[in-house]
Amino acid sequence: METIAFVTSNALKLQDVKAILEDNVAFKFIHYDIALPELQASPDEISMNKCVTAATILQGPVVVEDTSLSCPSLNGLPGPYIKTFLAHIGLEGVARLLVSFPDKTAEARSTFAYTAGPNQPVKLFTGSMHGKIIMPHATNGVAGMHWGYIFQPDGHAVCYASLDKTKKNKISHRYKALIQLKDYLINNNVKK
Predict the structure, then answer these.
(1) Which of 17, 31, 149, 182 is the most exposed place for a label (fewest CB within 10 A)?
(2) What string of DSSP letters covers 94-157?
């Protein structure tokens, strides 16, 4: 089984990736908790920069993931800056940004970036999930600052964070992107 570094300082991402890939036998992700610099750019550019930086640090094959939450009414914001928005104005503050807009729709997007190592091309794999922004409620089980407490996926009556983990991991933006990455790695016989 081939090993690839999965670089993230986000424990939730790590849990999701492990759950989604639990039946994978072709390769194994080895977790590295490295806080990578966040380039102020598009989601694809951020993912590529993080991947190149991590490959340079670890001198081997690397996978990174970046998540964004974009609202058409806000011209795509908060987008890849959702973590910063939440840190400064919180869940309710992000939800309140849309109060005066009739369109509360949003897109959660996950971009995985893979490279075989330093100075190698970076491949991107993207998945998205559509829904709307809702106000956080005590009944949503708000226990943290994750945007999943204010995002309600299309076709569901509860916020993303309240979905059963097994169900969530079969419909999520992360699942869709990760399956593309998994297929690429398997179909291209990626070797360390």
Answers:
(1) 31
(2) HHHTTTT-S--EEEEEEEEEEESSTTS-EEEEEEEEEEEE----GGGT--S--GGGTEEETT-S
